[in-house]
Design a protein that fits this description.
65% of the residues lie in helices and 0% in strands. The protein has 219 residues and is mainly α. The chain folds into two domains: 98 residues, Tetratricopeptide repeat domain (Serine Threonine Protein Phosphatase 5, Tetratricopeptide repeat), CATH 1.25.40.10; 103 residues, no CATH class. The radius of gyration is 20 Å and the shape is elongated.
């Protein structure tokens, strides 16, 4: 990368995308990171964390995401890293960690700039799994707020409708469950939103989710 100094034998220019994290690779990464421009370091840590997550190395991903949050709290990457840390918490089965991170994102960046824009939906998904009715009502408010932002892709709207169907089921609102499930199913029939990016925006549910939606849509 420009400004990062000589390669010193490390072949790949994308040194921050490599999911390896053995002693040698870690030392090389830290060396390159220390030579990088300060303004780029949070971004490199975020990309490396995503490489870990894609490789199933959640512990390493969490370590680097938390490092961005603690070491670069004013960076443009901080909000997204906090959101991603919440996602990793969910993948690890910790709803508490996920909720805390999502709430912190909303508190610090209420406009959600620099994030995926789906933090409210993610938090609503977490709250929906609770047994407390007041948390279900909060989930509905979060979903309403997310929809009003008006910048969702079809895949995002698909998630939104699933979350609405699930929270409506918790609240005993069968009509909304069916309506939201039908809306979600209709989104699975839509093609790519951008010709040059055939995967972006596609709603691609797994078999279990599709079966649940079909049952919910039928009432």
């Amino acid at each position: 990368m420009p400004g990062d100094g000589p390669n010193k034998g490390w072949q790949s220019a994308d040194w921050f995308r490599d999911p390896a994290w053995d002693r040698t690779t870690r030392d090389q990464f830290e060396e390159r990171l220390n030579r990088a421009r300060i303004g780029n370091r949070a971004q490199y840590l975020r990309i490396k964390a995503l490489a870990f997550r894609d490789a199933g190395e959640l512990h390493g991903a969490k370590e680097l995401l938390n490092r961005v949050v603690s070491d670069y709290p004013e960076s443009m990457d901080c909000g997204l890293c906090l959101e991603l840390a919440g996602d990793v918490g969910r993948e690890e089965g910790s709803a508490e960690v996920a909720e805390a991170n999502y709430r912190e994102v909303i508190r610090r960046w209420p406009d959600l700039n620099g994030t995926t824009g789906m933090v409210e939906v993610s938090l609503a998904e977490v709250l929906t799994k609770s047994t407390a009715p007041d948390r279900h009502e909060e989930a509905l408010r979060l979903l309403d707020s997310a929809l009003k932002r008006g910048r969702m892709m079809n895949s995002d709207l698909f998630r939104w409708n699933i979350a609405l169907a699930r929270v409506a089921k918790q609240l005993g609102d069968a009509e909304t469950v069916s309506r939201a499930a039908r809306a979600a199913l209709s989104l699975t029939k839509l093609g790519p939103q951008y010709p040059r990016h055939p995967i972006v925006g596609l709603a691609r549910p797994d078999a279990a989710t599709l079966a649940w939606l079909e049952k919910a849509a039928a009432g």
